[in-house]
């Protein structure tokens, strides 16, 4: 409702509710002198500290990409571009597929502040994954001399790796069953052939 303007040396009412207080404090010289002293000893000093810690501070963001399948029966996946540990909080994050910017199916989180005064931010892209595609998360921030780009390929993902391992295991098991079956078949034919030879000899 009211604030002290150090340039004019008096209290200024921001609304009509603050006018009675402003008029009273401006009429009291002791209050005015204490307010001026506080500007010199407290306000300017703390502003200098805050300016050193925040205004001139620049911390580069760290970037990681994670993936999760939205539904077990769906081909669509959610790609998350996680940016964290950056300052100041203003940041821009874009998704690209094969160097073409993705503008649909993109969702943005709010910018969260960390206990150390840095920030974190996340952008999600919902998309099908096709073999050979290259997804890129591009980050623009005042601490960076050029955009930071992190690539991600479906082949390098955990689901793709698991499918590859499953396929190899399946091939190995198939080969084992084939060899076992062939061995049993050959032994069975050998026993049958031996029995026929014995019958022919006795006849």
Automatic annotation (TrEMBL):
Keywords, comma-separated and alphabetical: Disulfide bond, Glycoprotein, Membrane, Transmembrane, Transmembrane helix
InterPro entries: Ig-like_dom, Ig-like_dom_sf, Ig-like_fold, Ig_C1-set, MHC/Immunoglobulin, MHC_I/II-like_Ag-recog, MHC_II_a/b_N, MHC_II_b_N
Subcellular location field: Membrane
Classification via CDD domains: IgC1_MHC_II_beta
Domain of life: Eukaryota
UniProt KW rRNA processing keyword: no
Record-annotated membrane-spanning stretches: 165-186
Membrane topology: Single-pass type I membrane protein
Gene3D superfamilies: Class II Histocompatibility Antigen, M Beta Chain, Chain B, domain 1 (3.10.320.10), Immunoglobulins (2.60.40.10)
GO CC term (a single one): MHC class II protein complex
Protein name: MHC class II antigen beta chain
Organismal lineage: Eukaryota, Metazoa, Chordata, Craniata, Vertebrata
């Amino acid at each position: 409702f009211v604030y002290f303007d150090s340039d004019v040396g008096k209290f200024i009412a921001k609304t009509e509710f603050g006018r009675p207080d402003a008029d009273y404090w401006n009429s009291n010289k002791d209050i005015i002198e204490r307010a001026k002293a506080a500007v010199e000893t407290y306000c300017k000093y703390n502003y200098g500290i805050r300016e050193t810690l925040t205004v001139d501070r620049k911390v580069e963001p760290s970037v990681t990409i994670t993936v999760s399948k939205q539904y077990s029966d769906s081909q669509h996946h959610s790609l998350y571009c996680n940016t964290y540990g950056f300052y100041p909080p203003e940041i821009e994050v874009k998704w690209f597929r094969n160097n073409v910017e993705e503008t649909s199916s993109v969702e943005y989180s709010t910018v969260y502040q960390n206990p150390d005064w840095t920030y974190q931010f996340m952008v999600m892209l919902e998309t099908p994954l096709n073999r050979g595609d290259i997804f890129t998360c591009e980050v623009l921030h005042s601490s960076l001399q050029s955009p930071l780009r992190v690539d991600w390929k479906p082949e390098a993902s955990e689901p793709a790796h698991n499918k590859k391992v499953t396929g190899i295991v399946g091939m190995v098991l198939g080969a084992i069953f084939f060899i076992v079956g062939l061995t049993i078949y050959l032994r069975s034919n050998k026993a049958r052939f031996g029995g026929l030879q014995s019958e022919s000899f006795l006849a």
